[in-house]
Amino acid sequence: MFKNHIKIAWRSLKKQAFFTFLNTFGLAIGMAGALIISLYIYDELSYDKMFADADRIHRIDADIKFGGAEIKAAESAPPMAGALKRDYSQVESTVRFRTLGSMYVKKVGGETSSKENKVTYADSTFFEFFGIDLLVGNSKTALTGTNSLVLTKTAAEKYFGSTDVLGQDLLLNNSDTYTVTGVIEDMPKNSYFNEYSVFLAMAGNVASREELWGSNNYFTFIKLIPEARVEDFQAPLQGMLERYMLPWAQKYFPGMTAESFAASGNYIRYHTMALTDIHLHSDRNSEMNATSSIQNIYILSFIGLFLIILASVNFMNLSTAHSLKRAKEVGVRKTLGSNKLNLIFQFLTESGLIAFISLIAALLITMITLPFFNGFTGKVITIPFTQPLFWLILLAATIVLGLFSGCYPAFFMSRFTPVKTLKGGASESVGNGRVRNALVIFQFSISVFLIVSTLVVFQQLNYIQSKDLGFTKDQVLLINEISPLGSKTNAFKEEILKMGNVENVTLSDFYPTPSWRSDSSFFQEGASSQESAIQMQTWGVDTDYLKTLQMNIVAGRDFNKQYATDSTAVIINEATLPILNVTAEEALGMRISEEIELENPTYYTVIGVVKDFHFKSLRENIGALGLHVNKTAENMAVRLSGGDYSNSIAEIENKWNEMAPGQPFDYQFMDEAFNTTYEAELKLSQIFFIFTILSIFIACLGLFGLAAFNAEKRTKEIGVRKVLGATVSQISYRLTVDFLKLVGIAILVSLPLGWFAMNKWLEDFSYRIDMGVGVFVLAAVLSIVVAIVTVSYQSIKAAIVNPVKSLRSE
Amino acid sequence: MLLQLNNIFKWVQQGGQRIFLLKDVNLEVEEGEFISIMGPSGSGKSTLLNVIGMLDTFNEGEYEFLSESVHTLKEKYRSNLYKEYIGFVFQSYHLLDELTVEENLEMPLLYKKVKGSERKALVADMLDRFNIVGKKDLFPTQLSGGQQQLVGVARALIGKPKLILADEPTGNLNSQQSEEIMQLFQKLNKEDGVTIIQVTHSEKNAEYGSRIINLLDGRKI
């Protein structure tokens, strides 16, 4: 019997090749989409779980409020790790990282440097702590000596062509020589340390041994003993504040007590963040590596679920629509002695078969598309073909999907009565299709919802990219790491300024792009307590900074090279004014200092107020900021006047090679750097876009099938109408309008949902668009157009049939 | 006695009125009879046949088939009953287009849960008997109407039914094909003792039978 079921299923699928294709294709696309999303989510959830004892490893985080600024720090003070280990028996071991960003590395005696993007100091406990084996070298001693470093395999092979490199020397940033004392495997892609390739011994970092409780620069990890509970460790951890932090602070603020500290509204709240939670749950201001957010996982899960449901609903719709063709078979089978159960089983076999064919197709689609998906997510996801569990889950899911999608059609079709179907009145038995209509409404609701979401995400991103940022990010070339120029830096700047296409050049370490930030506390002249501290960004710039980036002065004046006193001048931004409680005009001439505790503090005089410009993500409000003149800088910004950039770049690069021979010329355009800030949103929007297209596509397949069904069901009606003189366009119109009603209902259902969900999403941005009516009108129009295009083919096809043909069959 | 219908009424409600499809029909059928049901369109011929075949229900009256009261049986037992004892032949053959001749013949046996080897033997017998061995791997659409109906009859017979119900079995056939099918029915009735009830419009076909029942507006006349 089962063989017979499979046989007839296979043959009827083959016979109805087009329907089978629609059905399988829709299901396969849905499955492939869900599979890719599942693999992606699995990868995201697997972060850092590969490390031994990962469940006992935690990072020390701190929420700090001091001087008006709130910081969510992932870094701790240098002595924190040592103190925790010393004071608490729960702490088995610790490791610290002091990240250095990117560095130029070359073999001693080598010709050219190459850039390593992720370099960090690490404590010597690093390897034992994370259970990392060294390919060569001794894990206990590798990171003990100053000027020793450990490379990843890829880095070692890049510089030496092999991993057998113990004792070899590398030159970092053309100045410091380090000896290779070990090589490790590349850090796992799905780990917090992904892409870190060079680990320098902490011994070389002098500040790491100092009792500086006020500077938070060290990513500090602790491993608790197996018996300890992390919840019980939070209180002891908070104890560090009174035991170490406050006594240290009292050196600078005599008389400060825990009470007065708290009373002033300031706080330092320490807590732990589990290593395995960092990737998806960390919300710190800066991280060792880009993290993701659990919210994205939720959104993706929903999209994956949507896709599968859409595909499944599609299947139900097409199968029941197709059932007209099967009605006779049901009738015959029943007269031959088949009962309902037999038929249900037969149809479930069929849907199971389709599900399996779809699974194969889905795997193929996934294999083909995964490299592209990896390309834009930056992951290395593969299909785990060799894992039995994967197959088990996949097969189970396929069977469930096949049964789920198949059961409505199976029950539906097995209800047909032979008396009706064998007399050719099948169209009566298939009913008025209320369920099918509801399913179409459901499908289109999801599609319209996704269209709205996509449009809003795109609009917001567009808004971010075109917003008046307070400076002009276009046509600015950033040249990174200019330190190899040394004393020739200013000469280089002068040479570039002479070039035809160059409008301005400035030297600074700070640009309104995601780069290193410098937060420090300032005090107004005359302030005596830490309560009046102003937490602000202080950026060292040169006198051409504002001109080059085209920032506007709202009060006072710009820096001027001619004025010697400008070395102690500061230009503040508008956001600083409310903190100082003054207007722009009143601020001019005010004096602020970092060193209020000293006898003769250096004061900076406010000479100007710059219009607020965005230097953080638009998710955040603009904070207080001060610009002062600095002599040295690692980066250069060149404003070009348009025309052919590539010529200008080549010209600048030639000059660079002339003045800094053998050094890599590393540049980027500021607008590109700016875009990396919104990479997460950009990726989200791309994912949205792809899966929206997919879901609309699947919904259209369903609508297409249903339109075919409807046209078939109404063959007689159409024939009669034509005999009575209806034109093709009148009939197509009638058939199409019925479906547009369904789409209309779907639009009414999903627009409010879309509005609600996107409002929630937008709340994350301090600067956001107002969702206008336009988005919703556009989404509605789009879905109606798509529906019309889909349905009209079937409608017109049905309408041009010769009525003689359609009436004869009755 | 094979079956007995007592005071069968069947009606549908239309516009507040009862339209009678069958009105007080009484019928006794002995084993070995060959009955033709005749009457104009809409007289209730097919309805009566469907009621006898248990494919359709009725509103009033009693129906006994082999001393079982059909009207009191649950659907499951009813279907077991007709699966066991009744074979159907249709005007438009109703073979399954996706199955070959051989597979079409095999199907009723599958539903009767006949074992594989026995199934093969029965199907081979039937192919032999109807002289269609050469066509066993063809699909219905590759056969002529007469051949299709031949397969239809063979399929109805394969379960060794006591009763064959044929609803205008020659309605779609030309005169020569009709004659062949009717002769086949006669042979089955005479030589194998199969009871046959057919619905027909044709006087000529009706004469093959042993008894004619005339219907008009749902009534036996």
From TrEMBL, chain A:
<feature type="transmembrane region" description="Helical">
    <location>
        <begin position="297"/>
        <end position="318"/>
    </location>
</feature>
<dbReference type="Pfam" id="PF02687">
    <property type="entry name" value="FtsX"/>
</dbReference>
<feature type="transmembrane region" description="Helical">
    <location>
        <begin position="389"/>
        <end position="414"/>
    </location>
</feature>
<dbReference type="GO" id="GO:0005886">
    <property type="term" value="C:plasma membrane"/>
</dbReference>
<keyword id="KW-0472">Membrane</keyword>
<feature type="transmembrane region" description="Helical">
    <location>
        <begin position="435"/>
        <end position="458"/>
    </location>
</feature>
<feature type="transmembrane region" description="Helical">
    <location>
        <begin position="21"/>
        <end position="42"/>
    </location>
</feature>
<dbReference type="Pfam" id="PF12704">
    <property type="entry name" value="MacB_PCD"/>
</dbReference>
<feature type="transmembrane region" description="Helical">
    <location>
        <begin position="739"/>
        <end position="758"/>
    </location>
</feature>
<keyword id="KW-0812">Transmembrane</keyword>
<feature type="domain" description="ABC3 transporter permease C-terminal">
    <location>
        <begin position="689"/>
        <end position="802"/>
    </location>
</feature>
<dbReference type="InterPro" id="IPR003838">
    <property type="entry name" value="ABC3_permease_C"/>
</dbReference>
<protein>
    <submittedName>
        <fullName>Putative ABC transport system permease protein</fullName>
    </submittedName>
</protein>
<feature type="domain" description="ABC3 transporter permease C-terminal">
    <location>
        <begin position="302"/>
        <end position="417"/>
    </location>
</feature>
<dbReference type="InterPro" id="IPR050250">
    <property type="entry name" value="Macrolide_Exporter_MacB"/>
</dbReference>
<feature type="transmembrane region" description="Helical">
    <location>
        <begin position="343"/>
        <end position="369"/>
    </location>
</feature>
<feature type="domain" description="MacB-like periplasmic core">
    <location>
        <begin position="20"/>
        <end position="237"/>
    </location>
</feature>
<dbReference type="InterPro" id="IPR025857">
    <property type="entry name" value="MacB_PCD"/>
</dbReference>
<feature type="transmembrane region" description="Helical">
    <location>
        <begin position="687"/>
        <end position="709"/>
    </location>
</feature>
<dbReference type="GO" id="GO:0022857">
    <property type="term" value="F:transmembrane transporter activity"/>
</dbReference>
<feature type="transmembrane region" description="Helical">
    <location>
        <begin position="773"/>
        <end position="793"/>
    </location>
</feature>
<keyword id="KW-1003">Cell membrane</keyword>
UniProtKB/TrEMBL annotation, chain B:
<dbReference type="Pfam" id="PF00005">
    <property type="entry name" value="ABC_tran"/>
</dbReference>
<dbReference type="GO" id="GO:0022857">
    <property type="term" value="F:transmembrane transporter activity"/>
</dbReference>
<keyword id="KW-0547">Nucleotide-binding</keyword>
<dbReference type="GO" id="GO:0005524">
    <property type="term" value="F:ATP binding"/>
</dbReference>
<protein>
    <submittedName>
        <fullName>ABC-type lipoprotein export system, ATPase component</fullName>
    </submittedName>
</protein>
<dbReference type="InterPro" id="IPR003439">
    <property type="entry name" value="ABC_transporter-like_ATP-bd"/>
</dbReference>
<keyword id="KW-0067">ATP-binding</keyword>
<dbReference type="GO" id="GO:0016887">
    <property type="term" value="F:ATP hydrolysis activity"/>
</dbReference>
<dbReference type="InterPro" id="IPR017871">
    <property type="entry name" value="ABC_transporter-like_CS"/>
</dbReference>
<dbReference type="InterPro" id="IPR027417">
    <property type="entry name" value="P-loop_NTPase"/>
</dbReference>
<keyword id="KW-0449">Lipoprotein</keyword>
<keyword id="KW-1278">Translocase</keyword>
<keyword id="KW-0813">Transport</keyword>
<dbReference type="GO" id="GO:0098796">
    <property type="term" value="C:membrane protein complex"/>
</dbReference>
<comment type="similarity">
    <text>Belongs to the ABC transporter superfamily. Macrolide exporter (TC 3.A.1.122) family.</text>
</comment>
<dbReference type="InterPro" id="IPR017911">
    <property type="entry name" value="MacB-like_ATP-bd"/>
</dbReference>
<feature type="domain" description="ABC transporter">
    <location>
        <begin position="3"/>
        <end position="221"/>
    </location>
</feature>
<dbReference type="InterPro" id="IPR003593">
    <property type="entry name" value="AAA+_ATPase"/>
</dbReference>
